[in-house]
Amino acid sequence: MDFMDEYAEVMNKYTEVEVYNGFKRGYTGLSITYGFALRDMLWLEDGVYCFDEEERGKVRRGGVFNSPSIDLAQKVMLNYTVSILRHALGFEWLGLPIEEDELPSGWSMERNRHLEYVSLKGPDNIKLEFNTGEARYCVPLAWLYDVSPSELLRARTCFLTVAHCFGDGLGVRMFDESLMCMSINDVRKYIGLRK
Length: 195
Description:
Blueprint: H1 2-14, E1 18-21, E2 29-35, E3 38-45, E4 48-54, E5 65-67, H2 70-88, E6 108-111, E7 117-122, E8 126-132, H3 135-143, H4 149-158, H5 177-180, H6 184-194
Antiparallel strand pairs: 1-2, 2-3, 3-4, 4-5, 5-8, 6-7, 7-8
Helix pairs in contact: 1-2, 2-3, 2-4
């Protein structure tokens, strides 16, 4: 749950959204408030971590994405909200592939009988389990399979352009390991230098 603290600290300091980490205080959720009646939530429900927008004070059961893996749910949340942070830092938009035909080589998606996406299968019998109705939430997970949420937060706040992550457009990773290994304090210093 350390990532939740890092995420809340960076978002609260550099953006105009309010992130409240309820997990830290014994509750079962994290909220990202953009303004009056506009909020995203990450919460624990029936043993799975869920992510969705809150509408009229409520969230749908299971959210738009859910997984027994907190790491997968955190990566989806971060991918969904990081453009706000990058904009606040003056960086360009940094997108990832989101269509099923943009999966890295060796990866495939499975659907259930309701046509929901339920897992990604990768090389060496890798299987990422989740439930979502949209490919845009799960395709990036294949690209980010071996990147932790903390590393992703650091990379997304330090890289100026998409070329720093996906140099040739074919998915050849070009993550700068020195940036990904930075502590959150080093990231703050780096951001301060860039502003």
